[in-house]
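To fix ideas, we quote verbatim a fold written out as tokens:
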Amino acid sequence: MELTLEAYRNIVNYLGNRADIATLCRVSKGFQSACERALYNTLHLRDAHVAISLCNTLAGQQRLAVLVDALTIHLSDDESDSDSSDGERESAYSVEPTPLPDAYWPAIAGALQKTTRLRYLNIYIDTLTNKAVAWVLNG
């Protein structure tokens, strides 16, 4: 028995977390469509390895990439938390930061090329990493 698209969306909206939505996504094609829309609509990327994997998925699957409406990329050093004192912050910056994997920015660029319906893009770089990455916005 098939439900209406509105019924699928209402059911998905009642779920509490992304893990439950991902599980429901595998139930049927009807739920897959509604769940993928919920899962990929707004993305927050913090972990570099997760970001690479997700961006490669978006670059390789156009049907998922067009679902992305908002994308936030946030890079920060764990040592530079806002609640640390100035002395602690100075010593944290004297330590060499952990470099990003070489595939990080190319994966971001590939995903940005495919997310043709993207309306909101936020990129926060709060690390000592090279900030000359504007080339990822070249289409």
